Amino acid sequence: MEDLELINKWAFQGERMIHGNPSGVDNSISTWGGALRYQQGKISSIKRLPALKILLTNTKVPRSTKALVASVRSRLLKFPEIVAPLLTSINAISLECERTLEEMASAPAPEHYLVLEELIDINQHHLNALGVGHASLDQLCQVTMAHGLHSKLTGAGGGGCGITLLRPDLEQPKVEAMKQALTSCGFDCWETSIGAPGISIHSAASLDTQVQRALDGL
């Protein structure tokens, strides 16, 4: 536990160098894994999480988190009566999503995925209104929507990565067709899941031969 605390503190310092004033979510989730709740500067763990598969897509468009955060802050100061309700609504979306995930952890049903997909769409529209969208992310959403799936940006926005929710009833050929369409746009994408473990220690005996040879050559 002490080692994880130390790793997390050093990772946070790296985040500060890159982002200026980070939330601490990225380094924390990378260290402990699972799912976290970030609210009013406080980070807490979400204990009950269903198995959710997603497609992570990298648009390869570089962006500055620091600049995007500053842009949102500037827009809030310029139009407080417009932007503040957007932020309140995004918070409500997060709470509704958490409630839905808790229900899914107990008894998942197809209706839950419909709720999550609708929340994803609303959230993405709000993020565009805040000014952190990008043409590449719009293209990502359009491509996945053409395949009946729903996507949103992840992270700071302005390019970078987006996530697509993969329903459990989705046939693999359809996933592969969508991945091919995204690759044709110049994007990279990977199938993964939400709530993976954080840092772990692997003994040399657990590594496959190819990895062991690569490490021996360093």
List keywords for this structure.
two-stranded antiparallel sheet; 15% strand; 8 helices; single chain; 6 strands; alpha+beta; 4-stranded antiparallel sheet; 218 residues
Description of the structure:
It is a single chain. This protein is of the alpha+beta class and 218 residues long. 56% of the residues lie in helices and 15% in strands. The protein has 8 helices and 6 strands; from the N terminus they run H-H-E-E-E-H-H-H-H-E-E-H-E-H. It has a 4-stranded antiparallel sheet, with helices on both faces. Strand 4 (151-154) and strand 5 (161-166) form a beta hairpin. Helix 1 runs antiparallel to helix 2 (25-32), helix 3 packs across helix 4 (80-106) and helix 4 runs antiparallel to helix 5.
Secondary-structure map:
Blueprint: H1 2-19, H2 25-32, E1 36-39, E2 42-45, E3 52-58, H3 65-78, H4 80-106, H5 110-130, H6 135-146, E4 151-154, E5 161-166, H7 172-184, E6 188-194, H8 209-216
Antiparallel strand pairs: 1-2, 3-5, 3-6, 4-5
